[in-house]
Amino acid sequence: MVSYSYSSSNLLSSFVLCVVLVANAFQCFTSDATSTLMVDGSPNSGRPIPNTFLGAFFEEINHAGAGGLWAELVSNRGRFEGGRGSGSPSSIYPWRVIGNESLISVSTDQTSCFERNKIALRMEVLCNGPKSCPPAGVGVSNPGYWGMNIEKGKKYKLVMYVKVKASGPVDLQVSLTGSVHRVNMVSIISFSAMTDNNFSKWTKVEGILESKATNHNSNLQITTTTRAILWLDQVSLMPLDTYKGHGFRMDLFKMVADLKPKFLRFPGGCFVEGYYLKNGFQWKNTIGAWEQRPGHYGDVWKYWTDDGFGFFEMLQLAEDLGALPIWVFNNGMSVGGEEVNMSALSPFIQDALDGIEFAKGSPSSKWGSVRASMRHPEPFDFRFVAVGNENCFPHHKYFKFYDAIKRAYPEIRIISNCDGSKTPLNHPADLFDFHIYPNNSMDMFSKYSVFDKTSRLGPKVFVSEYAVVKDDARNGTLLAALAEAAFLIGLERNSDIVHMVCYAPLFINKNGRYSWIPDAIAFNSHESYGTPSYWVQQLFSESSGAIYLNSTLQTSSNSIVASAIGYRSSQDSKIYLRVKVVNFGSEIEKLRITINGLSSNVQQSRSTKTVLTSSNKMDENSFSQPNKVVPRKSALENASNNMVVSISPYSVTSFDLLV
Ligand code: AHR
Questions:
Q1: Which residue's alpha carbon is at the smallest distance from atom 7 of ligand 1?
Q2: Model confidence pLDDT, tens digit, residues 527-563
Q3: What's 175's domain CATH number?
Q4: How far is the CA of 269 from the centre of ligand 1 (A)?
């Protein structure tokens, strides 16, 4: 384990003025005291870090899924219900009407063919033909989630349900445009809806739109120039180039995949619970044919989701990422303080058991067969469930879930929501969940040792949400990320007990009405970038399954923390030693790294150093400067078993030494 010895010398007396390394950089000083990191690299020292160490947490927050990773382009594709659940007035928002009141009247009614989603959009077209209708027709248009990203040469699959009442043939055109009235039209398909064919009943219309131009702020328009009454429902437009055709937006999928997450926690967070229980995530409403899903209003983060990105898709996402799914289920408690009493708990327990069967049951089981019907007959590699989110349950209720799950699935590992970091839990669990959101970076930096004294006899630790928020975190500053890096080094050091860790939240759609900053990945309709916190996670992506090496840091500085691991690189399959050092102070730190016990020497060739820093500790990334704070890799000229390195102020550095 790392241990510390602090010299008693006066820190200030040992500083000398140094050259400014980066243009407009900090006024930097170098401490002439050299710290030493002694790493024991002997073959039998160290211990394995769990394979599951670093993962990702997907929550439907900030339009992470709806209007984000889930590539569906149409917003409010068929609920037309104002986004507040049944009983509230219907609304076609964000659909807009094309044509004034003398030409078209748009409303909603309850005539849809979808039983769990009865509201349809009704357009009564009052004009008829080129003389009274505008040349481009009248109808409705959908802007997607703050603009659809339509790219030249790409194909988009349209599906919609239409019913028509008219006295003759009705033309129907579907187009992608730069703005209303087909200005900057990028694609169009036409249908002829005849009243004497089956358009007089609900008809599924499908087509492929191929884009002739790029427009990141496009609209989908459905128009006609014929007098008729038309009903629309479940209108979907999906890009064909999603990851493996599974519906995940490519750039966002890749950013998550680059973190090499070994698990995926989902779907929340508070999203699971709902402010009111009725608005929590009810997985059974999110599976099966997308058209049949009722969707729901997530009343904690306050937006509607059509649940196209449902339970199945999240399991699929985990599989595609090569990550183990961790399902957080609703345990009968809500954010708003509802808690079902003992007699009403059974449906929640049954729901959890059914969900597990859906994920891992045989294709002949009741719920496994539903999964199989969604073209996934093989069970998912499903091993973990969490009993609720952020609600340390009265134990007699927790036991009900625990017993029922362990009885049916003894191999499933159960995560409790009670904090066992200071005092042991008084109930059985395989892991306990731990969330930490300090309000400033120094506070997070000091949490480096938070699990040093945690009992080694109880359940393992799952740090399923961590991040600096508020004061100096803003939209995601370098300083906050450095504090998180120090915290992660502390977790690595305690990885005999800390088995899993993931940052929160993962995503933010910057165009949307979002509720939580900072986040790991920011995006709009067509661009994305990582915050410094995202890049810190990448520096830890080799830690899962690596060997944690014993090391000792001798320093008079209270600004640096360090750790060392041995790992096999996924890029060249060679063995490397990675030393990570966080400098949380404003001076350059000199560090001697001494590696003992290696059977071969550190090789200079291919040894590198990767530094995450910037000219100002409050720097952030943005769409205009997405690479302002990103790791920079360079050759490590003086790589050896005994070397002195300079650690930049406000930085995290990863030394990767080929051995
Ligand atoms: O990560 C955002 C929220 O923070 C989560 O939904 C909740 O679990 C926590 O309070």
A1: 269
A2: 999 999 999 999 999 999 999 999 999 999 999 999 9
A3: 2.60.120.260
A4: 5
